[in-house]
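Our consortium's second objective concerns turning raw sequence data into structural hypotheses that experimental partners can test. To show how far this objective has progressed, the report includes one record in full. It was chosen at random from the queue rather than selected for favorable results. The single chain below, 155 residues long, was entered without modification.
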Amino acid sequence: MVQFNDIVSPDALAARLTINGKKQLFQKIAALATDAYGLDAAIVAEALFDRERLGSTGFGGGVAIPHAKIPGLARMCALVILADPAMPFDAVDDAPVDIIFALLSPVDSGAEHLKTLARVSRYLRDDHNVARLRGASSAEALYALLAGSGTRDAA
């Protein structure tokens, strides 16, 4: 199983949130990024909006991977939100989204950004991984799953 403890902080996770649209979602991601990584919420939210304007980052099956490059960011960072209920997202399959795995990258991280995005995408294309994430009832359970610390106590 892929482990994400190198890019995910325990403070960058939220489970069972009711979210009413992309604006509220990106604001929540930005607030988590401020708390977990010390980033400027306004910059994060705007960067996510700018990327989303290029095309939806909802890739189907109830999953979205919003991503953006953030000025001044020193390393790759991820944030994960489980929405309950699933929210409209303009995904490629028009299905609502309940797993949001946001990826923030340094501006100069071209290849690293693409490799990490591919790593996240591969993980989220596995039905078993998606089912386990959906079963997480707390941020702590999400972190246990993503950090690879075992599954027995994760959900």
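The partners drew two points from this record. Residues 150-155 have pLDDT under 50 and may be disordered. Helices lie at 22-37, 41-53, 110-124, 127-135, 139-147. Both points have been shared with the crystallography group to help prioritize constructs.
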